[in-house]
Model the fold of this input.
Amino acid sequence: MNVLRFSKLVFGSATVFFLIAPLIAILPLAFTDSVFLNYPIPGYSTRWFEELFTAGVWQRSIINSLIIGCGTTVLATVLGTVGALGLRDRQLSLALATIKTIFLLPMVVPAVVLGVGMQLMFARYGLTNTYLGVIIAHTVVAVPFVVVNVLAVLQGIDRRLEQAAASLGAAPVTVLKQVTLPLALPGIVSGAVFAFATSLDEVVLTLFVAGPNQRTLARQMFSTIRENISPAIAAAAFVFIVGTVLIAVVLNFSRGTKQANG
Amino acid sequence: MSNPFIRLEEVSKSFGLLTVVEGLNLEIGKGEFISLLGPSGSGKTTILMMLAGFENPTSGAIWAGGKRIDSLPPHRRNMGVVFQNYALFPHMTVSENVAFPLKMRGLPRALIKERVEKALDMVQLGSLAERRPSQLSGGQQQRVALARALIFEPEVVLMDEPLGALDKQLREQMQLDIRDLHRRLELTIVFVTHDQSEALTMSDRIAIFNRGKIEQIGKPSDIYDHPSTQFVAEFIGETNLVRGCVQTIEGGTARVQLPGGQVVFVAAATDLRPNGSVCLSIRPERIKVGRREAAGNNITAAIFDVVYHGDHLRLLARSDGQGLVVKTDRSQPTLSIGEEVQLSFLPSDCWVVRP
Done:
């Protein structure tokens, strides 16, 4: 018993260390006062955060990430929720099962393949180097996360609640607005959060379809590390991680309310 | 029925190859409390779902209040539905749940508030108006569901095993409450259940379902005393089924020989023929221990178990290979296992049932 507990502890700690070691390595560098991205850290300052929020390219990329992230979130959440409502607990005929698989395909198709296809297609419709183009590209990979999350919640909703609402005089649209969507809200919120997070760290598609004006934070970090290795990257990473933690908190909160309701 | 409020005409329902309801005809009067009783899978819930509009009949017509309703969507049928799991909206408070049907009908806010308060008082839940359904007990939730289904004064209330999830004591209390509401509000209630005692205590009429068809329909006492088939006799209450062969019919009494050779007299039903085989239903409480003179049937049986039930005793006996259950009060002298006794019953207590 003690051996078991001990080995659990050791393996658990080792796994956690394995997962977060890269983060631990990069985070302190955000606070270096040197111009090099390496250890040891000679002294501490917040100059790279200032650089991040004042230097033109970084500032621009943060704003771009927010614009594209919000656009993607809205579009993916709407499309994914509507898709999930359509796919919900039907007797899965072959056709519907196929459609469901297609919905989830962008999760597994290599981003490079999607990127090439999008670049060809977007060029045709004048969408390359536009915000709309990048938002559409990100939406394609974000929709599956919304579909999966919303579908999971919808399948947990008792059909009889909707039947009850109908018998009490609610037309189908009213049932959707007053019963189905409120009950699916935790799933929709999780889906939206995943969509935003997906957009935030998406690099590959962005490389293919975005122009210099749509450089996102992730894309900017990617080029910075090739061109000039500046500790601003570490600061950007720090911002990312804080953002991710906030997202995780939102997710936990929305799951918490789901449990309270269910 | 001279003026039925609800009429089902040749209604059938199939799911793929499976026929759940077959050529059903049923008339329900205004203000009637009718129970649809049957084992699971007998089609009773499907009929309720078709009345509510959640399922469409494969063929046939459903009429309510003189209008054909089988193509009407559920929200335009004006029927209250009470579900077994209550189906309360978890994201709304008790009063919001009860107010829902009135809000759907666009009533002014002040009037809604007043009627919700009245409805919650009616089911004694006024003090819990601001709670969420998850904070209530099963019985309280069921009363909220009742209030919600009654507040918009529907023409018909459909109940799908509404008491199935409650414990015995609460269930009996709710049975009385629902009966009381039925009388006070003059409701038409269609009540689906698989619990025969519930159907017997609550209904004006009972329709017994078996494999998508009505096996027998009638008043509870008719069905209990005069079951038409073996299925009904066994499903409602407890019974002894005894097979025999008709020997002679004389003056309304048939002489029936049991397989073991003993002879009993049976009040003859119209369709009995000499030399025909017959199945008799004899209720356990109709059989007495001890000889009965005059017109009684007396048979000899050996007791092989005596079961104490508090208010009565149940004797398990065997007579020429035929098992018999006898329900007797406790004033009987002590009976011991293995003892030979005389059992007696009247010819009128033997009811002929179709197999």
Remarks:
- Residues 61-261 of chain A form a domain with the MetI-like fold fold (CATH 1.10.3720.10).
- Residues 258-262 of chain A have pLDDT under 50 and may be disordered.
- The interface with chain B takes residues 158, 160-161, 163-172, 174-175, 178-179, 182-183, 261-262 of chain A (CB under 8 Å).
